[in-house]
Model the fold of this input.
Amino acid sequence: MNRLINKPSKYSSWNLDWITILFFTLISIAISIPLMYLNSIRLDEAQSIWQVSHSISEILDIVGRDVHVPLYHIILHFWQGIFDNSIISARYLSLLLSIISIPFVYILASKIYTPQIALMTTILFILSPFINWYANEARMYSLLLLLAVLNSIFFIDILKQDKNKSWIGFVLTAILGIYTHYFYWLFLLSNALFYITNYRKFQKNLLSKFIISSVIIIISILPWIYYVISLGAAANTKPRLQSPTSIDFFNIFSQYIFGFQPDIINSIVLASWPVVVIIIFTSLQRKLHYSVFNTFVIFQILIPVGLAFILSYLRPIFLSRYLIITSLFLYLYIVYIINTYFKKQFKLLYIGVIFIIGLSLLLQIFNPNTPVKENFEDISLYLRFKATARDVIVLSAPFIIYPFEYYYQGITSVETFPIWDRSKVSSIPPFDSDKIEEQVNRIKEGHQYMYVILSYDQGYEKEFKTYLDNNFEKVGERDFSPDLTLYQYKIN
Amino acid sequence: MSINDSMNYNPRTIFLKNTQASKLLLIGVAIISVIYFIFITFFINPSNYWLYAILILGEIFHLWQIITYIITIWDTRSNNIYDSNFKPEVDIFITVAGEPIEIIKETATAAKNMDYLKFNVYLLNDGFVAQKDNWQEVEKLAKDLNINCITRRIPHGAKAGNINNALKQTQSKFFVVFDADHIPSKDFLQKTMGYFIDDKMGFVQTPQYYKNHNQNLVTEGSWRQQELFFGAICKGKNSTNSVFMCGTNMVLRREAIQEAGGMCETNIAEDFLTSLFVHSKGWKSVYVPEVLAEGLAPEDFMSYYKQQFRWARGSLEIIFKHNPLFNRGLSLAQKLQYLASASYYLSGVVFLLNMILPLIFLFTGSVPLINSSMIIALVFIPYIYLVMYILQRSSNFTYSFKGLAFSLSSFMIHIQALIAVLTGQNDGFSITSKTQVSGNFIHLNWMHLTYIGVGILGILYYIYSAGITVSLFANVTWILLNIIIMIPFIQSSLPLKQKSINMVDVENLETIPVVSTLTIDK
Done:
């Protein structure tokens, strides 16, 4: 067992590490705060704000139907009770959770590898465009990441030293994690698989304790499962996902490293995949000690992504943000490779990686065509002044009404296509090709112009637009952000 | 868990430890390799059929290499009988052909000082027939050290002939072969002779360790290649009784060699072919995974080049002239092992063909397969990662990029050897230099430099004719990978930092009037 415990490192600049981390954290905050104010609310955020504006029992009901778990929403509910119910205050919560993660990322990386690797990984984590994006989003991902980091720390402590407080922390963070996101199970499963495949390398008594812990964790989620089942049908208020392709598989890793970039950059990055082969070949270096925790890192990179990819053929669930935990382990492994295998060139390579990551972050921030940007603020403001009381605004897919109505304060009536009366049904009605004419006629009645906002294609966007183009005169068109376009039709 | 700690690193033992990879992992790699092959071959539509054929032939070869490697390292534990009390008389043969006298002296002295009951040291002096200036000095050295010297006057069969000549003049039932530069440890005989308690044990082989592996780029690259062979591969061959002789640091039973017709004088890699004959007569062999002698790696690029050429040509000759598949005396496992070892030298052709595929795309736009590059990546990346991982795992993480780079970049040596075998060219055999030969040998890498040049031209041509496309990036990355692989090899062919320069005659020894001289070491 002793060989698993880190020896005191020669790298003694502990304080300097923390100062460096603090410096980069301040840079990150300095970037994040203006962005929180500048970026428009996005669909998911709008749903968060809407969901947590209800009472606790209503939140449980809404979240239960919304294929999520409620911890983040409950925290956000109380947070907004203390502050206000704006998107900005909600984003501050995510930022805070993300900042809290930073020292724990350093501690985790130190436990797995060395303080030097830990410092390098932490800087990468702070500058990561992907992490930054979700540190500024009013969703549960920064909480998910924090809990995973804490859980990993406890998990490694258990494997090294088997202390009671580590077990308590492990079980507690596991329970909180599974109440934060369903994908936390994939993370826990990777831990379990790592332990099962390497259990001979650890103390024998751990097995029974892990079994007991697993039972406690599983029991803890049963009330929620019972509650969700008792709710009946899930609400259909989310974008429909496609089954992933091989491109999506690699795109996830590309997003973790380069953030969200326009298609052309993404295509070049993906086309250059043989770079991975170069890395595999050149990283073949003599190694004196193969740490078992290296396998832990590899498991955490490949198993959740691989499982999500496979499961997505049953039900499409393959989204990079659901697997945000993987990004941290990917950074850790990249730094490990650089530091361990390229001893002579590691500084140069690391600076190169930091430069690319930093550049990607800046591109993601300042490029208006960053694909995940959703400019509902500008489109709402535009329509507030452009559309009149005689016009109608139509939103398709219907769920974009959440971010739209967050900003929109105009006098024009707002409809969705397909027509969705939220006061009567919680689920969005399914699209019916035969009802296009009937629904459009209902919407257009008594109006002069129809302002159609198309976003989040749910498979019928093209058909709907073709119908409008064929039957009405299109008098205007404007893109507000990638996948957010406004069309103006003269209808009467 | 310090990962950069080099305090406990022992290069003499590190490559021999922990070579047994998990069977589950090996099965997993075999399965994914087969899946990859089936996927590439049957599930992706060909684009250009010629290029597709090239690609698939390469993949068949790679699959063969991977599967035979997995079979080889399936079990790296030895269960041969050993009796430390078995101590028969042994003759020690130190083969000499003009090496510096100090080197011979060091080896002979070490041999003389070995801890063992009864043994006789012989210098098998081929300096006279190889027309070396110091052949008389060797005789004097033997006299000074009070050991025997057998100087050949009639050249025949090079090193194998030298040993056969000595066998006629000596008596012991067992004999040891050391190259002049391989210094045995005191316990060499104690650690090896006990295996001959088994009456069917034909020979015992020990590692060929290069003590100068850190001297320069050539010695380092050379040793990186050897580590894998003398680590997992030789240990694995134990389980199928197919360890073959490596020319030095070996103990042989006279009867086994005589039954096999003596050391084979007709092949450039005499030790390899003699092993095959010995095994086909039903004799056994064992590999002792312990460094019991220290030798010298080729110290300059020219010597390395010639050494590799000899090995490649000798091995390829076995495929074409003594194919183990048709040898009735060998077991199926032995046939497979001999074929796997010999066919390694066909990898040069495969590497060259793979290398030119991206170049063909740049100039013609033709590709072997019609499909999304990402689908191929999805299968290829885990496949190549796992293959590299088992290479590392089975070598106790000693296998490195440098070893890989030297192996792959030797493609022109392998191709030249193949051409020589197919055309029956009579290349002279030369001795691997024991001291560094100075000079710039970049010309030997003309093909590598041509590839780089054509690659650059191809990129410019493609941009000029088709502009900057996504496909350009994919193909440029493949070219870049090939160039990165070549860099250590090209670097090694440039003038090296001199440590000891003794010009050694590495001329083509075919000029010797009577027959030819053969390789001195392997």
About this structure: Chain B has one domain: 14-522. The longest helix of chain B spans residues 49-73. Residues 1-7, 498-522 of chain B have pLDDT under 50 and may be disordered.
